[in-house]
Amino acid sequence: MARTALIVIDMLNTYEHEDADALVPSVRKALPGMEELLRRARAAGAPVIYVNDNFGRWRSHHGEILQAALTGRHPDLVKPIAPDEESLFVVKARHSAFYETPLAFLLSQLGAQRVVLCGQVTEQCVLYSALDAHIRHIDVSVAPETVAHIDPDLADAALRMMERNMDAHVCSLDALAFNEPDE
């Protein structure tokens, strides 16, 4: 059976960007599902990998990104899902978690052939990460209640695209398991 990794996308966020006001309500709604995914992944011993934008700070590392997010506009959206000591971290500069990052190599080293994606933004970074996983022959699962969006219509379309065009397993949070087939 393929090992599964949880990928947490762009959740270490200062919410100091032009779409933040549209995004925050969706993040609040998705946060409990993300917390549950983190709990399940950690309980199963699955790798948890935070992939986060560097916000143009080319000297930044995960500690700096986390600290900026915790002192940003909405630390209450960061604290519940902050990385623990076992979490892995990949810095990205573009939309996809895979684009010019070591994520594919890291997943290979971990023996992970399946990823569960959560985080933000469904119609942007989550969608592009799902596509890049698909073209790398990595299985993708996404629970809609664990991803946040700016535009609900585009988010729905993105989830349909992931399922139809990328063979992603789009399912309820209850149907997701780590290191077990989703059925």
- The run of helices and strands is EHEHEHEHEHE
Would you tell me the structural class of the helices and strands?
A: alpha/beta
Largest sheet: 6 strands, parallel
Helix count equals 5
Structural features, described:
The structure is a single chain. This protein has five helices and six strands. With 183 residues, it is an alpha/beta fold. The chain has a six-stranded parallel β-sheet. The model has no long low-confidence stretch (mean pLDDT 93).
Briefly summarize what is shown.
With 183 residues, the chain is of the alpha/beta class. The chain is built from five helices and six strands; from the N terminus they run βαβαβαβαβαβ.
